[in-house]
Amino acid sequence: MRNYLKLLHMEIHRFRYILFALIGLTALVQMCAIAFNAIGEVNKRNAYFEQTGRAPEEFFAAMSYTRAVQETQFWFAVPVGLSIAVLVIYAFLIWYRDWFGRSTFAYRLLSLPSERRNVYFAKLTAILTFVFVLIGFQLLLMPIGRAIFAMIAPADQLQPSYIADAIFANQVFKILLPRSFAEFFVNYGLGIISLLVLFASILLERSYRWLGIVYGLAYAGFCALLMVYPLLALGRNYSAGYFYTEEAYAIQMAIDALIVVSSVWLGLHLLKKKVSV
Amino acid sequence: MKRYLLSMALGVFAVGSIGAYYASGTEGDAPRYKLVTLEGDAGEAAKMRLSGSYIGGVGSKALELTVDGTNYQLTQSFYEKYLKDNRYLTSRYEDMKALKREHRDFMRARSNVDSFYKDSEWLIYADIFLYGPRGVYDWRTELKMDVLEEATGRVNEIRIELNVAKQVSWLRVEDVQRIGDEVHVLSQVRYRTGPTADGPSAVEFRDYIVDLHTGELLREAALVSEELAVSDSAGPGGALAAQSVTSEISLSAISSEVRSQPSEYVVLATSKSEQSVNEDGKEMKQTRRFAVFSYRTGKLTPLPEPSPGLSAYSNIQSELSGELFTILYSDRGSLAIARYNVATGAQEQGELTLTAEQFGGQSIHSVSLAQNRVYVLLTTVSSNKTRISDGRQLAAVVLDAGSGELLYKGEAAYDGPAEKADEFRKNLWLTNVNADRP
């Protein structure tokens, strides 16, 4: 356990600058978007007042943070999309940097006097930590954005907004931060399964090199087919499907569990027996 | 330990922030509403569902209001979202749910609620399939009937190739009943009467009678048959002519409200709508005829014509419950109920007409007929919208379909601090009333 924690800390430490850069970029872009939206809205209202001499609230709806998030969702999505892209690339790099980085680090890593599975689980946990830290930070940014919006908007023209509604006003967050925790569990569960399959494919490539690329692609493709098979073939959504919904889902869960177990087993087996430096 | 501070802090932050978000509730600005009983027994409204939206904030949130409170479709549980049986058949009807529990294998892959018959001895599912065409004139029609004997649990699979001479384009089983050893499979069949697919066609009710034990097709009979008329134009250019009449005919069968219960009767409805266009504009005329078919006698008895006043109503609903057939007519100002005894073919009592004012409302927004009850969503101000605002209250009433007696009257209200009640009431829009089916 101690070795695992040490390795986990090392992985987090190695990525810290990129992580903080992503956090900083997200905060900068999203808060600027909210501020500019609020300023633009206030300017529009002031111009109306100057031109007509009438109170803006007679013509404009009350200013709402939820609406501001809805109107700026592109700028909210840009840093989120960038973060996702960086994390996907890093899911490869977290392995390959050990081989292709300085001083053949992989040699030292695999020679450590501890179980090699610690390396595997430390890398897996590190990626998940980065994902959930970025999600957590996004949640933290939402009330900060609301406070900035409230500072700019005139108090008498401000409509109260709930954070949950503001989050749901953005299409990207509907997937990343669904309203129901069950949906959150399923969405990220699928993400974790994909990560496990990717790790197994990477280790296949590290074990068998050129042939390993073929094995890795075949394994990933097979797992993807297996995962979508119940949805497509068991007629879950058809009124006359042979399996009842709960049975189709039980099959889906069993397949998912099988992929998790087989991917972890394959990854650990390859790391222990096949991977060479 | 200090050197691991960053990792620990990040881990705690991630779990803490996500956990706090979901623990604090994610419904946002979704106020709770309740139905306040103004009159009568709240138990009568137990099956009533008022649907609409909360329109506060940005966008709207769909909701359903019952005597138990408000149900938003925002944060569904894991079960609701992923495991609830989304099949219409076994999620909507209580009797079908019970059948699924009792006969799980038999109920697999069943999709038509009208295809079931159940009594203490037999459970039957009959459906008709139209196969092909492998060639233009190669249609094949097969009646598939699965018969489960309750005493033995044995299932007899009966397959009958139907010899349909006509060019069938569509068919559907509307009702299945057993009279002695004979199983009646009532189907609606649409077929072409001309040489081309887009030419003239006809529709009919056809009763296929099958021997329960041998699975032999004993006989078949056409009960109602209607030519589906195409537009009848006075001038050149068909529908574009200066004067034209377009008519549409549809047939429907009203079987017992509890589909899996035995019934000797079925009501067959023929609806004809005519739209005429002339120099004065469009005129729409709709006529409906009902006839009772007795499976035991094979006799088709037309029901008495409704009074001319009832024909003017724009909406119509009907149900067959036991030997009572109820027709509910409604429009914005009033509703009318006519009831018939299907065994005698006679009207049970005089037609009952009730106005919105009689229940303290000014207009009727939505009605629903179920299990001898009439559910009505009322507004107190005649309007196209049912938004609750100052002086524009929304009420729901439940009436006895036979006597018109008011059994329940309730009002939608904000379930929260009184000082916020008016503000939130303004943002509730109710559009429909429905009742859970048996």
Can you walk through the features of this model?
The complex is a heterodimer of chains A (277) and B (438). Chain A is mainly α. Chain A has helices at 2-52, 65-71, 73-100, 105-110, 117-152, 163-168, 171-176, 181-233, 245-274; strands at 63-64, 158-159. Chain A folds into two domains: 1-177, no CATH class; 179-277, no CATH class. Chain A is 81% helix and 1% strand. Chain A has a two-stranded parallel sheet. With 438 residues, chain B is mainly β. Chain B has helices at residues 5-23, 78-83, 88-92, 94-102, 308-311, 418-425, and strands spanning 33-40, 48-54, 61-66, 69-72, 116-118, 122-131, 140-149, 155-162, 167-179, 182-192, 201-211, 217-228, 232-233, 244-254, 265-278, 281-294, 300-302, 315-321, 324-330, 334-341, 346-347, 352-355, 363-370, 373-379, 394-400, 406-414, 428-435. In chain B, strand 18 and strand 19 (324-330) form a beta hairpin. The longest helix of chain B is centred in the N-terminal third of the chain and has 19 residues, at 5-23. The radius of gyration of chain B is 27 Å and the shape is globular. Chains A and B meet through helix 1, helix 2, helix 5, helix 6 and helix 8 of A and helix 1, helix 2 and helix 3 of B.
